[in-house]
Design a protein that fits this description.
Layout lengths: L1 H14 L5 H10 L6 H11 L2 E4 L5 E4 L2 H14 L3 E7 L2 E6 L4 H12 L5 E4 L3 E5 L3 H14 L5
Antiparallel strand pairs: 1-2, 3-4, 4-6, 5-6
Helix pairs in contact: 4-5
């Protein structure tokens, strides 16, 4: 539930100028999430959201750009760590060299976590859960491009 709520929060702040925790709480409640302001406050912290200025002098919530930039640079470095990327039904399996899966998964979560239901990383394997088979197949194509990986 937390992952879905986090995904919704990222969607909301990308589509609307959310200026307060109260406004974000109301948006989530309108979408059927039973949340308190304290829960939203924790979510904001966990997601690393920041406030950026608007042209009218007010501020809105946004995703931290520096973290995404650093994560993208990490993914470029990690591209040589990928052994295979394939889907099986609504699941994607990413095989890496030993010891690399958790680092790759952390960067993927930072950049793309809102695009999938969840992920689990072991020592050399990442499991990414998608909503359906079609979205899994599309994500495989996206990941292969991102990592410049060929079959």
């Amino acid at each position: 539930m937390k992952q879905k709520r986090h995904q919704k929060i990222l969607n909301i702040i990308s589509e609307k100028d959310v200026k307060t925790q109260e406004q974000l709480t109301e948006e989530l409640k309108n979408m059927g999430f039973m949340v308190t302001q304290a829960t939203v406050s924790r979510d904001i912290k966990e997601l690393g959201l920041i406030k950026i200025p608007l042209s009218d002098g007010s501020y809105k919530y946004a995703i931290t750009r520096e973290e995404k930039k650093d994560s993208r640079e990490h993914l470029t470095i990690f591209s040589k760590s990928i052994i295979s990327i394939q889907s099986a039904m609504h699941t994607i399996v990413v095989k890496t060299h030993s010891g690399m899966a958790q680092a790759v998964a952390a960067s993927l979560d930072m950049i793309m976590g809102h695009e999938f239901v969840g992920s689990i990383a072991g020592d050399d394997t990442i499991i990414i859960i998608m909503e359906n088979t079609k979205s899994a197949e599309e994500m495989v194509v996206k990941l292969r491009r991102m990592f410049n990986w060929k079959d």
